[in-house]
Amino acid sequence: MNILNILDEIEKVDGEIYERINPRRKAMKDFFQIGKKISLAAMPLALGSLFNKAYGQSTPTAVNEVLNFALTLEYLEYHFYNHALVAAPGLIPAGAPTAAITTIRDHEKAHVDLLKGALGTAARTPLDYANFDFTAGGTFNAVYSDYPTFLKVATAFEDTGVRAYKGQAPVLKGNAVLTTALQIHSVEARHASHIRQMLAANGAAGLKPWISLGTGGVSNDTGIAAVDPVYARENTTLQAGVEITAINGTAVTKAAAAESFDEFLTKAEVVTIANLFLKTGFKL
Amino acid sequence: MENLKANPKTSTTDTDIFDARLQRRAFLQYAGASAAVVAMVAAGCKKDRSPIVSTGTTLDFKNDIGVLNYAYALEQLEAAFYIKVASAPPASFTQAQKNYFQDVQYHEIAHREFFKKVLGTAAIGNLEVDFSSINFNDGASVLAAAKTFEDLGVAAYNGVGVRLTTDAYLVAAGQIVSVEARHAAWVRDQISNGSFADLSSLTSLGANVSGGLDAALTPDKVLTAASKYIKTKINIINL
């Protein structure tokens, strides 16, 4: 990669490129730090970051878009759990399982309310239960009649939620909103950990609280082929240009390396997943 | 290095080397031209900027390096704890618990080594830990300590993320914190099933029940909470 040429080329069409970068002196410093810390293989990512700053992609509009995107996912999760609790009697066993799903449902409701409040008039149109198809077009027909199927979909939703927030973090960089988003994100991760244990106790023996390598090293460790897109790239062991397997001569296995970092999903990937569960007319 | 130190134009200290357009341009091209040279200069500057502290270690939060070293310090602590547990688990642990503590041990080692590698010569040294308050023969004591470390880890990453200025580091931190949260939830369920996300028990770490928000603490508060487990004196500057 030749950054020198790239900057020259941009200067031809945008004589202000250096001025655009200038007000963000911090961007320059960041870039300096990247050169120092990240291998050349990771430089394209670093360069993208510099240009994001120069062209101000992290505008309030972009922040609102992220929050509305998150709000859609929270509506999805909330209605999914709420319907199970109020309209599918007997689906979830009484006691600890119902208590856990209630806890999760309540958190998703809190997230919906929080995001709606933060967005104010910029909030998206509210989504109702009727706007969703939690069978995903018939893939999960028994979602509200078969407990393991319900837990499978729940696992996919929680792991998607974790990955979706992570993917949007750079848009919120340096913004106080980021802290709130991270606080929601780790709650989703706690949910995912528990739901995976509930699924493990109901047919998916050995499923770990953390996303591990699937059979034969595939990215989806749940064994549910229909949710493969939720686990895209989860078998990654390269982080910021650093190979984690056997890092620095340690006994970290490929499985442990994959488990130790959750991957992010791009917005487009999350939209594809969410649209499976949104009815026509309400798709993203 | 001495030559580099003597020439302010190659320094990243707060003198305004970026102000003139030409210099900025030259710097950009210079930075891109050779990462190796940049690394050398940066290493030289680091020495210039870091105050000399005779004992302990200093976390300078003025840039991402400080944040990464902070994470490195916490991962050192967690890894040391889990290595000790995994090597001699309490007798009361089930096989599943032993297996998962083994898993978590390797996750924390992976995190620790990741930061060490990313930081390179800018990494702080090895911390000396103090686990005298933990009874490693007692399952309840080990689980309670694990819960403390994991919840604190979540609070730490959540609280410090906003200080990161580099996308790659922010994403990496996000990829780690959710794994810590998965640990925290699992450990909590071992202590009391269903407490995986009991936010009301996390308000002292910054959680907010009505918002459904997890813990988040600034580095000074995290280090104060962790201080009884760390012998090495950690100084914080530019927070």
From TrEMBL, chain A:
Q: CDD domains, from UniProt?
A: Ferritin_like (cd00657)
Q: Which Pfam families match?
A: Ferritin_2
Q: Which domain of life is it from?
A: Bacteria
Protein name per the record: Ferritin-like domain-containing protein
SUPFAM superfamilies from the UniProt entry: Ferritin-like
From TrEMBL, chain B:
* Pfam families (UniProt xref): Ferritin_2 (PF13668)
- PROSITE patterns, per this entry? TAT
Q: Superkingdom of the source?
A: Bacteria
Coiled-coil stretches, from where to where?
none
Matching entries from InterPro entries are given as:
Ferritin-like_SF (IPR009078), TAT_signal (IPR006311)
Output this protein's name: Ferritin-like domain-containing protein
Species this protein is from: Pedobacter ureilyticus
